[in-house]
Amino acid sequence: MTWLFLGIAVVFEIAFALGANATNGFTRLWPSVFTLAAAAGGIYTLSLALRHLDVGVGYTLWTGLGGVGTVVLGSLVYKEKLTLPRLLSFASIIGGAVLLKFTAA
């Protein structure tokens, strides 16, 4: 269940970041409600995952994978450019998160 909770928290993190862009500085009601709900859901499910994960591992995976997912979906939803340096950076984040998981006690 720990990894399921972390996966759900990552989805909420991505939804939060994409929603925050749509709020126009929290001046639009429904995107703002969605964004706040996603933030609350992400923090809650992250806290459930952290019952069994070290905070360094859980938080790093949450923010790293959330960041990668946000950039990938941001390129689709908001037409942001994906360049080779960005793709290499994402690969580094994912590789670092995987290595962190395997080196955690």
UniProtKB/TrEMBL annotation:
<dbReference type="InterPro" id="IPR000390">
    <property type="entry name" value="Small_drug/metabolite_transptr"/>
</dbReference>
<protein>
    <submittedName>
        <fullName>Transporter</fullName>
    </submittedName>
</protein>
<dbReference type="GO" id="GO:0022857">
    <property type="term" value="F:transmembrane transporter activity"/>
</dbReference>
<comment type="similarity">
    <text>Belongs to the drug/metabolite transporter (DMT) superfamily. Small multidrug resistance (SMR) (TC 2.A.7.1) family.</text>
</comment>
<dbReference type="GO" id="GO:0005886">
    <property type="term" value="C:plasma membrane"/>
</dbReference>
<dbReference type="InterPro" id="IPR037185">
    <property type="entry name" value="EmrE-like"/>
</dbReference>
<keyword id="KW-1003">Cell membrane</keyword>
<feature type="transmembrane region" description="Helical">
    <location>
        <begin position="29"/>
        <end position="50"/>
    </location>
</feature>
<keyword id="KW-0812">Transmembrane</keyword>
<feature type="transmembrane region" description="Helical">
    <location>
        <begin position="84"/>
        <end position="104"/>
    </location>
</feature>
<keyword id="KW-0813">Transport</keyword>
<dbReference type="InterPro" id="IPR045324">
    <property type="entry name" value="Small_multidrug_res"/>
</dbReference>
<keyword id="KW-1133">Transmembrane helix</keyword>
<keyword id="KW-0472">Membrane</keyword>
<dbReference type="Pfam" id="PF00893">
    <property type="entry name" value="Multi_Drug_Res"/>
</dbReference>
<feature type="transmembrane region" description="Helical">
    <location>
        <begin position="57"/>
        <end position="78"/>
    </location>
</feature>
